[in-house]
Amino acid sequence: MTDAEQLRRWRLVLGGGEADGTGAGLVGDDAGVDAALGALYGGGREGGGATSITGGPRKGRKAEPRSRAGGLAASAPAVVRWLGDIRTYFPSSVVRVMQQDAMERLGLRQLLLEPELLEAVEPDVHLVSTLLALNRVMPEQTRQTARRVVAAVVEELERRLSQQTRQAVTGALDRASRTRRARPPDLDWNRTILANLRHYQPEHGTLIPETLVGYRRRQRAFQRDVVLCVDQSGSMASSVVFSGVFGAVLASIRALRTSLVVFDTSVVDLTPHLDDPVDLLFATQLGGGTDIDQALRYCQGLVQRPSDTVLVLVSDLFEGGDEAEMHRRVAALVAGGVQVVALLALSDDGAPAYDHENAAALAALGVPVFACTPDLFPDLMAATIQRQDLTQWAAARDIVVARGGGT
Fold first, then answer.
1. pLDDT at position 53, please?
2. Average pLDDT over residues 178-195
3. Are 321 and 294 in contact (CB under 8 A)?
4. pTM above 0.90, yes or no
5. In the 8-state DSSP scheme, what is residue 353?
6. 311, exposed or middle or buried, with CB in 10 Å at 0-12, 13-18, 19+?
7. What's CA 396's distance to the chain center, in Å?
């Protein structure tokens, strides 16, 4: 690497101004990259002619040759130009991080109420979470644009996750329904023959089966009932989005009866919206407090067949209601035969903050408690349906599981 290239890289890292010490100037795309970063992160990154977030040049900064980047002024047209610049200079994964930072640092959240700005934003789960939080204050024109953005993200998530979910869950249901004491009308002849090849009698030219492999006779339309109980407090925004998509996918599997309940300090049953995940997400209301016990009480009323019911509680477990009663209710569900799983998060956001004491209390009751990424959720549901030990399942995937005596 040449000295000039090293100086260029250091200049981009340090952000310009007298403090960088390189004396290097930037031109072309380098100046544009620097201006886009400077408009968002400041700290002397005003190279490339970038203006400050208030719209004017900062005092005491030496301007380099101006590029397409014009800084992030407090108006929608300037933000649209900035969004276009970062999509030009950075890959989508970086663009999404910068958009999220802009929402937190520069008040971009309020500007998302303007339709022309939404058209320029790179859609992702965090953006959907923000739009859902702003849903109640959106003008009608912006709401229609927001629905298109949310629909695009939902479509992408369904394309990424639906096939994997259906394959994992239907395969698990198929395996769970098999029996080695099948009645003749219910035999799976191919599997029965494979299981008994060692009993082939060559002198008679026949096979004598000792094991009859088939399926349990299905007397009910649904093999499992799944209840997703999702915390919609502000900290769970990404989890709400993924839960909504997964709820819609699970509802499309005919062998499952799926319910989706969201809660904060009130409880809303969104099961009627499972056929349209976009409508479902706009029916949520992110923010507010948390009353887990009240939500579990409602879900307890949905349980008709405890031994065939999976209840997935998606929450960081910061209970604003009666903790002791919440613990007793979970204990009653488990004692009744319901498979209860507590997911501290259902998102790609990394390790979540959560209530360690409540996590330990649920773990002590026999409830697996851990965070789960969306890519692992289909396998988690398959393992649950097959009644695998979920603590071992999580440990095999290097997932940290809450313990009964602590975490």
1. 36
2. 63
3. yes
4. no
5. P
6. buried
7. 21
